[in-house]
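DM from R.C. (forwarded with permission)

"hey, sorry to bug you on a friday — could you get me a structure for this? deadline for the figure draft is monday and I only need the backbone to look sensible"
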Amino acid sequence: MSIFSPALSARFDTLVAKYPVKRSALIPMLLYAQDEVGYLSDAVIAEVAERIGITQLDVRNVATYYSMLRFKPAGKFNIQVCTNISCMLRGAYELYERFQDELHIGHKGVTPDGVFSLEEVECIGVCCWAPAIQVNYAFHDELTPNDVPKILAEYKGKAGNSGANGSVKNA
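My reply, with the result:
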């Protein structure tokens, strides 16, 4: 019996069939699993390994390489503040500090209500619009620390519209 929804199980089957080497489906499978479960639990790692015929250690070795994959639950809204050079030069650290002050959490912290998590990341690929953040899969750019309360209020308002798995509709 799978720990994943029938829809995700079917998606995995399609992915594995698409690649000549099953292992090539590993990263997309981990991302989709993380979206559904919230993080890469031991059960997630075990089932993904079994589905593509590799060891759990092989899955962990790949997963630990990528910062976007996590082994602990994050908030419903995972805020990633880019502090790479372009963002840093345009105030990313001040932005990050404002998020820390408003949320009362640090790097990879989760608010007590589970709504927000925060992390400093190396690059989210929107250097032209620095400083920028990513909340789940939504980008916010050309920000100042004064934008932080509005962003947090927007997502706090959406927190009640989330599905059972913590994913957010229209976020």
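R.C.: lifesaver. Strands lie at 77-82, 109-110, 116-121, 133-135, 138-140.
me: no worries. The chain has a mean pLDDT of 92.
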